[in-house]
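Table S2 (continued). Query chain:
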Amino acid sequence: MKFATLRNGIKMPLEGFGVFQVPDATQCEESVYTAIKTGYRLIDTAAAYMNEEAVGAAIRRAVGEGICTREELFITTKLWIQDYPEAKKAFNISLKKLGLEYIDLYLLHQPIGDYYSAWRALEDIYKEGRAKAIGVCNFYPERITDLCLHCEISPMVNQVECHPFFHQKQALESAKEFGVVLEAWGPFAEGGHGIFTHPVLTEIGAQYGKTPAQVALRFNIQRGVIVIPKSVHKERIEENFNVFDFTLSDADMKKIDALDMGHSEIIDHFSANTAKFLSSYKIHD
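Corresponding output:
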């Protein structure tokens, strides 16, 4: 495994395992357990995913069996908009659900609502040592710039949609400017654009004996972008992890560069309707 070094010196794996849209507790626990057994050490969940308990159960199982220690794991969870006014209370609930004494990375899930007050709460949590690192999700260049210029502790990570069809070049430039590490959610474009059989990715992969999915992951990793692929299938979990034994050539990177559409086809964070939906979405009573 290779690592990105966060601004505070913390080492974060360049590849992790995501559990978005895996609400079934049994399936989620088994998937995370399989991922840890395979070698993943970064696990990414969120309060809004409704599966923190299952992730915690998998962690206890893996640690209990001696597959790894808690200290070897890098656990991420996120604060949902609804809980921004009571961020510290929500953090404690996530800790309890996960069964952990600390979180390795705690993120604001969306740049919606009073995220400045929520960020100040995360700064306190970080100062207390209960979160080893703090960051944000879905903060596009103008939002991450604004926050970095007007906070005490700048985000260490910005998790955004990022894949061969949406490179987030401006987000990557802004991240580098402020010493923020970019992390990709949806590294497979949520299955869009025929990514698993795409002719360009297939042709590139054939040179290395790799699948289009592995090429997609390697593309981001070579740009220093952390990836968190998701799967509930053992063979895919193992395949996705096998991306550190080859390097894409400059020519191959340019071929993938030509696939960039420059925008998302999954969610439009610049849309008023998106802001309304995210603001109204509740994860508890």
